[in-house]
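Worked example 2:
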Amino acid sequence: MTSLVVDDLSMRFGGITALDGLSMSIDSGQICGLIGPNGAGKTTLFNCVSRIYEPSGGRILLADLDLLSVPAHGIAAHGVARTFQNLGLFPSLTFLENTMSGAYSRGRAGFVRSLSRIGVRAEEREIRADAYRLLEFLDLAHLAFEPAADQPFGTLKRLELARALAARPRLLLLDEPAGGLTHAEVDELAQTVRRVRDELGLTVLLVEHHMPMVMGISDKVVAMNFGRKIAEGPPDEVQRHPEVVAAYLGTRA
């Protein structure tokens, strides 16, 4: 079953074309690696799927849902969650509170009930318990009541992942999660992404410059350059594709 379909997607910023008729698809339960040189349009695609940007043309379908018909503030409630290249955590909040903040889209209390506190405490207990389970899943439970401030960068990367998972997504977008990590942390992250897919049943779209990680965990890889798709398929085929080699290494004179 196809989970995500990007069809003839275009994105222009004035006279600059960031996405140029991009089409690709990801099957349900796949890990798809999105690769390309800096400026290829990878993060622009992420921002279109997560509704930060309004595309100039094309379609984005999540199963049978047209994501472009969903307002930006409602995208998480429809099963899309993401991480960012730059951490956006709340330093003064604890690991548990940061994780709970990712579950805002699941809230059912509403404005009136929140003011009166009717049914709110039960909902908070449920979200808190779920957040703690996610911290256990990511080996962060021992930090549940510690503030996020001054924690190691690799640990905060896992916390950001916990916060995204708190929304209970069906499509998880990971934007350069290995950036700034040590080799050991990258290996640990690769195992974690596999566990997230396998045990939580998610579809994962991964943008990453760390090629060994991408090629090691992806079921398929999509390569981009100058806003266009230049290759799509199994990792071993894509990394040998002539246009992919040229995009990364240049061509001989």
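The radius of gyration is 19 Å. The chain has nine helices and ten strands.
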